[in-house]
Design goal:
Blueprint: E1 3-4, E2 14-23, E3 26-29, E4 31-32, E5 46-50, E6 56-65, E7 68-73, E8 83-88, H1 90-113, E9 116-123, E10 128-134, H2 139-153, E11 159-165, H3 166-169, E12 188-194, E13 198-201, E14 215-223, E15 229-236
Parallel strand pairs: 1-4
Antiparallel strand pairs: 2-3, 2-8, 3-7, 5-6, 5-8, 6-7, 9-10, 10-15, 11-12, 12-13, 14-15
The protein binds zinc ion (ZN).
Zinc ion is lined by residues 39, 100, 104, 200, 202, 204.
């Protein structure tokens, strides 16, 4: 099983690891800080550099395979047992962290303000997409929710990650946010909490304080049917 360094330190962007397994261009390491595409958050990209000859390989995709993280490289040549240093594209990852924490904040505001079920988030480097099941779906109302989220950002609350036993975690109301989603089949759940605002079982990478989000920018809505209403947003630096 790949040790997932990003779970406990989302700011770590360089590491050394050993190659445990290779299947063509797909590499399994003993540990990694590359976040695999999952839970609505897009994957990290970056480079692997082989220590003995400094040859660099581009990582073009990162996926979750069972309990491992598979790193797809751009060319063949790496071998099992090679020691490599990994470096993630930090600009991309940091934007995804800001979008992910922003999505949790929006989840909390939407749930408090309206009778809404979150049906899934999709976060890419370019923008965030939030799926909601909201009866009264209009632009003005959503804009007002986003303004409210931006007011909360100014309070600069702390964002924490920690672990709870599943039976303890499931006593917390709203810990599983997604509609129609069963809790993960794990004895211990990783929790992401925005102090006093939102608490969710989550495996993603987040900023450690709300101010790092900057400002949430409302891009628009899309109504694709009863259970397929979408809200698009981005995060920008708040200067
Ligand atoms: Zn999340």
């Amino acid at each position: 099983m790949t040790e997932k360094l990003f779970l406990d330190d989302s700011y770590l962007n360089e590491f050394e690891a050993e190659i445990l397994n290779i299947n063509e261009k797909f590499i399994i390491l003993n540990k990694t800080c590359f976040y695999p595409k999952s839970g609505g958050q897009d994957c990290d990209l970056g480079i692997l550099k082989r220590l003995n000859d400094n040859k660099e390989f581009q990582i073009v995709f990162t996926a979750k395979i069972n309990d491992d993280v598979s790193h797809e490289v751009n060319e063949l040549g790496l071998n099992v047992g090679d020691i490599v240093t990994g470096k993630i594209n930090w600009e991309r990852r940091y934007k995804l962290m800001r979008l992910h924490t922003a999505a949790h904040l929006l989840d909390a505001v939407f749930q408090e303000e309206g009778e809404v079920l979150i049906t899934g988030n999709e976060l890419t480097y370019e923008k965030g997409r939030m799926g909601v099941n909201l009866k009264d779906f209009n632009k003005e109302k959503i804009e007002s929710y986003i303004n409210k989220a931006n007011e909360i950002i100014l309070k600069d609350l702390e964002v924490k990650n920690y672990y709870l036993k599943k039976e303890e975690a499931l006593k917390i109301p709203g810990i599983i946010k997604l509609a129609n989603t069963a809790p993960p089949d794990l004895p211990v759940l990783r929790i992401t909490e925005i102090s006093g605002i939102d608490i969710q079982a989550d495996g993603g990478t987040h900023v450690k304080s709300l101010k790092e989000i900057g400002k949430i920018l409302f891009l628009g809505i899309e109504n694709k049917g009863k259970d397929r209403k979408r809200i698009y947003f981005d995060v920008v630096n708040n200067i």
